[in-house]
Amino acid sequence: MRIGTCVAAMAIALWGGGAFAQDSTAKAIQEYRDALQDGNPAELWEIKGEDLWKQPRGPNKVSLEKCDIGLGPGVVKGAYARLPKYFKDTDRVDDLESRLVHCMVSLQGMSRADATRRVFGGPGAAADMEALVAYVTSQSKGVKMNVAVGHPKEREAFEMGQKVFYYRGGPHDFACATCHGEDNKRIRLQDLPNLTNQKDAQRAYTTWPAYRVSQGELRSFQWRLYDCFRQQRFPELLYGSDLSVALTMFLARNANGAAYAGPAIKR
Hints:
Cytochrome Bc1 Complex, Chain D, domain 2; 3-stranded mixed β-sheet
């Protein structure tokens, strides 16, 4: 009886110690994140992106200043907070990145292949697309997310994105929801937001794009989805595809009501 009591007491102590250690680690990680916010290198991408936005480029030698990303030609202030959305000229739902590609093709005269040749930066070579994304998104800082699903194609995209989020497949039988569908999940000391919970969805979505300290690069939301698919061992997620935009629509819509706070800085 005494031995059983001692074992039970030790188990409780160890469990309590583990819980305390997890809480301490989570607190330390949050303090680390808070400290990183000062002097966010994303500002360098924003500056470069503004220059690219105003710079005549492509075969037509025109800038993107007449690009309509949702609030009219050239309007960037607050536009990102309403994306993705339906665009009549493309007859599809576009997110920011697919819309920028459209403008590069339709206004600047680039081929789609040239416009998407390098959309994610790598060692020693930043991507123009990520700089453009940094600039445009920064112009919505402080604006509340307000993604609509009033058009039939917006509703269709939202519903498709929801299905993709819960779809299980690949060699590990994973879904987005496997990591992001429950509270209190963690991987390698990293808290995983529950994207079905509005508070978590708001906090997570509104801080992308983000400068990744571990990579020394600014990463767009399309990159975030691309890398999640890679980690799930899913087929490659095609840049700007209907599926990628639909999943973005689902997650962005869930973040409605929160003030946009990106580009942020992450580990």
